[in-house]
Here is the input.
Amino acid sequence: MSRITRLLMVLTAAALLLAACTPTPAAVSGGPVTLTVMTHDSFAISAELVTQFEQAHNATLVFVPSGDTGAALNRAILSKEAPQADVFYGVDNTFLARALQAGIFEPYASPLLTDIPTSFQLDSENRALPVDYGDVCLNYDRAYFEDHNLPIPQTLADLAAPEYAGLLVIENPATSSPGLAFLMATIANFTEERYIDFWSDLRANGVVVVNDWETAYYTNFSGSSGRGPQPLVVSYNSSPAAEYIFADPPVDEPPTGSITAPLACYRQIEFVGILAGTQQRALAEQFVDFMLSVPFQEDVPEQMFVFPVNPNAKLPEAFERFAPPAAQPATLDPALVAENRDRWIEEWTQTVLR
Here is the structure.
């Protein structure tokens, strides 16, 4: 065997060994990477969108419902030293300051933020990015007010008038997100100095308090079940659109309406953030971008009955017709809410329930 032949054999063997040790493109990419997303229990997304994201990013999405907004945030905070997820969705502006103070999020300035109005961007450091919003409003039973020839109240102050005695059901702000939002609306309307006087008047006027939205809307409210005793309920401005969409048999218009007069609704904005310590930072960024993109934004109205923050997203016809956003919603600074929320709830409890 010549020296040249022996050299060629050695080089060939080396090349084969190198090829065996070098990962193929499939081995480099591996199987799908799992991204875990912690959410509140009301989160919903179309299965087709989940599949599209997973296929586009070679990923598996795992959603972890963790209770209502407050409970889910508590879980994220308590586990921040050993995060149970990569992304957290669902903290709203009534809990935003608490989430930021707890340091559970990593900043991420998504390029899609340029499409989002600055009025929704409440965190200047981009730790929590806005995804959707909804207005907590008074909903009314159209038939009741027509049958009783009673004017629909247009301001929160109207609710204390004698003609509305016993007609309003609300949710306890200590146990319900819309109940808390309505409490915030009364503080924005009447100021910290006078809001308790308003609640004293409501109590004297027979306001009914239940623990959760489901009981208020489906048991007490006459506009949905047709059997409840109260024709006024604290709900969402999107509720009439839901009544229209799910009506069986179909209806020409929903049996309910929302009162969206100036300062009569409280605006809730929901946010997404990348949890500090994630091992999937790049994929988490892609998921945040996905939530701000038009396909996801157009999915949220009929999935979660909230409004997209991206103005490029088209609303469903039912929302256009029956769910106008409040033109002048009530709002409070998230830091003010974080500082005073517990005290306000205790003051409300002492006034209304004891």
